[in-house]
Design brief:
By secondary structure, the chain is α/β, with parallel strands linked by helices. The protein is built from 29 helices and 33 strands. Helix 7 packs across helix 8 and helix 20 packs across helix 21. It comes from Populus trichocarpa (Western balsam poplar).
């Protein structure tokens, strides 16, 4: 952590030393000399930092020295950031003044007493006003700049003196030169190694499932408790997950609830988590008694399974109210507890306790080798097997240790590398969990310093917290952990770091959500390890009790905090003492609890680089937010009561990320957004923003712009037009362009140059409009909005033109296509030819779906389809929709026929395959459709839904419909919103 910070500061110092600024800086005596002195001191310290980082684990004096170094490094980083921000601000002000009318400039000068007197003197001399105002503006600004730089220079000198003292003290520790790892470890071709297979726990899994399903007919209404007990890293949570997700468990229990309890224990938090899992929404209740009553009402008479993961609290009085509320479940209900303490199992009055033992050496080897030897040749595996087994012996039967070391060894390519790990002195470290931390330390210190910082930053989040990759990368950027290069942007560097940490088993439980989003967690032991490394820098506030637990010196050193303000808690005043915080995440469920102290927070925590108020019930943001000059990341997402942003937001020159997702009450953005020239991510999806302010084209650093809303004119004279998108050539991810029918001139769409935005993954074109009389040629407009050829997701909605754009079939990388709420087209393009299309949604006004959209045979222009002749003249095998997995026919109210019945297309044919991978079909709102084509019904469907389709419902009605036999093999069928399940078909 310290090494990464020092490296960052060295880069900043060198940059400033080389930077040729205006002549006024020379008035600040000694700054350049002081910067050179700082650089030398930092370099001398950096040379021994790696050795100091390791020795601090055993030597408290070294740890104290490192803490002092971190404090000074942070201070220096802040001062240098203040310097560079001041330079940027002055440049921006000069640019604005150059564009401002002279009368405005002159009027501004009169507000300054000093300038006012000079102006009067100049006017008496009959000098031209334009010359006078220009001269005075320059004079006044120069004066302020010199004073400001003089102030910063003093700060640099002051911090430099502290650093010099630390540099002198390093001699007393006898540090050795130990070069830190700079090169990133080699990564395999896949992002994550598949480590989902569990080794050595089959018997335990069967045992736990058997106890959960055990007949309890003689037990009355008693809810049995089953406990899994064992030390950290043995796989207790994994075993509970295996049981929880087993098919027989899903079928047996009406309700399944999973709650991570962890430490410290809070009855209200656990109760709220149970209710939220049961109902899907957090309860608006404060006291424990009504919470317990809600739990009882939700599970009464129902057979439930409640998993309480990672329980530490063994005080029966704290558990009694919750236990009582769970007694009204139906016979057969179960509570499954995982814990490291056998006293918890006794306190919970467990009917059965499974003491989880360590893996055998062979089982441990299986876990290790699966990861360490992934992608290696047989010869390489044999070469490393002997050393590998010695390393596995040191894992002491702990699966987490084996998995972590497997990830570490995956990047080691020589026997010398493997020997170095086996003989490393870190094996001798024993902290917190004996046998667990040494493998984690080995993997941690084998990482480059920048990636170490990315990992330890995650210590700030609570246990079992679900993180999102894109959001975490933006947080890393805000802290300065990611450095761009000419060939790789910061976001891509962050993705690479994430993959390395995932491979090392520092992250787990991956879940892909949309196009480019991954959610994940940290194992609780890995989280403990991260907090062990960052225990002097991170803290969590839930109530004001922390004020009595931490010393004043702790708050002075704290840099990252997450604070939860519940309905029943006072605002924790202790947070004001942490004046050097760089990250603050606030979770508030009470408007008054956070709104009142927010102004004080902004005034005292002036070093914030990241401020997250997401999902808080605030209504306004104080204008003082504009004084947080270091701020890079600002998150107001899901603040549904927030009405507007202050114009001072535009003074945050360093801002990189602004998130207003689902801020439904925010109707407009600050007018001078163009000043945020370092903004890279602007997220306004689901917000009430009606238009983007003019000048958005100047934000050329933007990588994310979730929505562009075309203004309908009227009083929105400050709105950007569509053509301003043309300047934003670096946009990535998904872009929604809304209210396209407000476009006055098709040339604006041409200027937007969507086709040149080669990094876009998804494009949503919404042809809606404000209530105006504007008319535009929709066919020409959609043609002008051609996206890049590598687009993966396309949606065209509310389009009323007569032809879909010609460019659709050139998008050969499409995985998702949505043409819905659209008008009537004479023909549909041959979508079946799109080779990678996995999801298709069609919602157009047409009477017939012919086979043309399959792309087989002649199509509308008379050209040949995709059938091809082989060398012997016979037809070669062809496929329509070769990758399609999901098909939605949606709200096609005029659709009467869907060709394919009786045409031979549904029969087994060695030459033609139609939708060979189709798993899910939904037909909704098609009241005139009479039947489904045979080629669809013979596809390997797993799920079929037919809703608001009376003729289809009658034809395929269960047991009664004439064609019921054609769909009876499908596992899940929904007709008129009534679902039925069958055993999965055998492959």
């Amino acid at each position: 952590m310290a090494d990464a910070l020092v490296s960052t500061i060295l880069e900043q110092i060198i940059t400033i030393a080389r930077h040729q600024v205006e002549h006024e800086v020379k008035l600040v005596v000694g700054v350049e000399k002081e910067i050179e002195h700082l650089k030398n001191n930092f370099q001398a310290i950096r040379d021994v930092l790696e050795d100091a980082e390791r020795k601090q684990l055993k030597d408290a004096a070294v740890k104290h020295w490192l803490n002092d170094l971190k404090d000074v490094s942070y201070d220096m980083d802040d001062v240098l950031d203040e310097w560079s921000t001041a330079v940027l601000k002055w440049e921006m002000e000069e640019a604005e003044n150059a564009l401002a009318p002279k009368s405005v400039v002159f009027s501004f000068l009169r507000s300054c007493c000093f300038c006012f007197r000079r102006a009067e003197q100049a006017e008496n001399a009959l000098a031209p006003k334009s010359v006078v105002s220009s001269f005075l503006c320059s004079f006044c600004c120069s004066f302020r700049r010199v004073a400001r730089r003089h102030d910063i220079a003093h700060k640099i000198i002051e911090v430099g003196q502290k650093l010099e003292d630390i540099a002198k003290r390093k001699a007393m520790f006898g540090f050795e030169l130990h070069k830190a790892i700079e090169k990133e470890p080699d990564r395999q071709t896949t992002s994550f190694v598949d480590v989902s297979r569990v080794h050595g726990r089959e018997d335990e899994k069967k045992n736990v499932i058997s106890k959960l399903l055990c007949d309890s007919s003689q037990e009355g209404r008693k809810v049995q408790v089953i406990s899994i007990v064992g030390m950290g890293g043995l796989g207790k949570t994994t075993l509970a997950q295996l049981a929880y997700n087993a098919d027989e468990i899903k079928t047996y229990f009406e309700k399944r609830i999973w709650v991570c309890v962890s430490h410290p224990f809070d009855e209200n938090t656990v109760a709220k988590a149970i209710i939220e899992d049961l109902s899907g929404a957090a309860p608006n209740l404060v006291e424990l008694e009504p919470l317990c009553k809600r739990i009882s009402e939700s599970i009464e008479g129902k057979k439930f399974l409640l998993v309480l993961d990672d329980v530490w609290e063994d005080n029966p009085r704290k558990w009694e109210p919750l236990k009582e509320s769970l007694k009204c479940g139906a016979p057969g209900s179960r509570i499954l507890v995982t814990t490291r303490k056998d006293t918890v199992a006794k306190m919970m009055e467990s009917d059965y306790s499974l003491l989880l033992g360590k893996l055998t050496d062979e089982e441990c080897w299986s876990v290790f080798s699966q990861v360490a030897f992934y992608g290696r040749s047989q010869d390489a595996c044999e070469m490393f097997t002997e050393i590998g087994r010695q390393i596995v012996y040191r894992c002491k039967g702990l699966p987490l240790a084996a998995k972590t070391l497997g990830g570490l060894m995956q990047s080691k390519t020589t026997t010398e590398d493997w020997d170095n790990i086996l003989s490393n002195e870190l094996w001798e470290i024993e902290e917190v969990e004996k046998g667990i931390f040494p493998p984690l330390l080995l993997s941690y210190y084998d990482l480059p310093v920048a990636i170490r910082s990315c990992f330890t930053y995650c210590a700030m989040f609570p246990k079992d917290h679900v993180m999102e990759r894109g959001k975490l990368i933006k947080m890393w950027m805000a802290q300065g952990y990611l450095k761009a290069s000419p060939s790789k942007e910061m976001e891509l560097v962050g993705k690479g770091y994430f993959e390395i940490l995932a491979t090392r088993a520092f992250f787990q439980d991956f879940q892909e959500t949309d196009e480019d989003s991954i959610k994940f967690k940290m194992h609780d032991i890995v989280h403990d390890f991260a907090q062990f490394l960052m225990k002097d820098e991170c803290f969590t506030v839930e109530t004001d009790v922390l004020k009595r637990q931490k010393t004043e010196s702790f708050y002075e050193r704290a840099r990252h905090a997450i604070m939860t303000v519940s309905n029943w808690a006072r605002f924790p005043q202790s947070i004001y003492n942490a004046r050097k915080l760089r990250s603050l995440l606030i979770r508030s469920f009470n408007d008054t609890a956070i709104s009142n102290p927010l102004l004080e927070l902004l005034r005292k925590l002036t070093y914030l680089r990241l401020f997250d108020l997401s999902a808080s019930q605030i209504e306004e943001i104080p204008s003082d937010v504009g004084k947080l000059l270091h701020l890079r990341y600002l998150d107001f997402s899901y603040c549904k009561w927030l009405k507007e942003l202050p114009e001072t937001i535009c003074d945050l020159y360093n801002l990189q990320s602004l998130d207003l997702t689902w801020c439904v009450a925010v109707k407009k953005l600050p007018q001078k957004m163009r000043k945020l020239i370092r903004l890279r991510h602007l997220e306004i999806f689901g917000s009430g923003v009606a238009f983007l302010p003019r000048g958005i084209e100047e934000l050329t650093s933007l990588r994310t712009l979730t929505n562009f809303i075309v203004s309908g004119g009227g009083g929105q004279s400050g709105a950007a037009n569509l053509g301003e998108l043309g300047n934003l050539s670096h946009l990535r991810g998904t872009l929604w362009i809304e209210k396209l029918l407000n476009v006055r001139d098709v040339n604006e769409a041409v200027k937007a140059e969507i086709k040149k935005k080669k990094y876009l993954i998804g494009l949503y074109l919404l042809f809606n409009r404000d209530e105006t009389d504007l008319r535009v040629d929709e066919n020409a407009l959609v043609e002008a909005l051609q996206p890049p050829s590598n687009l993966q997701v396309l949606c065209i909605s509310e389009f009323r033109g007569t032809l879909l754009p010609k460019w659709i079939m050139s998008l050969t990388k499409l995985r998702g296509l949505d043409i819905s709420h659209c008008g009537s087209f004479e023909v549909l393009p041959p979508f079946g030819r799109l080779p990678y299309l996995e999801k298709l949604k069609i919602g157009v006004k047409t009477r017939k779906l012919d086979v043309g959209f399959l792309g087989l045979g002649p199509v509308n222009n008379g050209s040949e389809g995709i059938s091809k002749k082989g060398e012997n003249g016979e037809m070669a095998p062809v496929s329509a929709f070769p990758k399609l997995k999901e098909l939605f026919i949606w709200k096609m109210e005029e659709l009467e026929g869907w060709d394919g019945i009786g045409m031979g297309l549904g029969e087994k044919d060695t030459r033609t395959a139609i939708m060979p991978q189709l798993r899910e079909l939904e037909v909704k709102g098609c009241p005139k459709l009479k039947a489904l084509p045979d080629y669809v019904l013979t596809a390997p469907l797993v799920e079929l839904r037919m809703n608001e389709c009376p003729l289809l419902s009658e034809r395929y009605e269960e047991e009664k419909g004439e064609d019921w036999h054609k769909i009876s093999h499908i596992s899940e069928i929904e007709i008129n919103y009534q679902r039925s399940k069958r055993p999965p078909r055998k492959s």
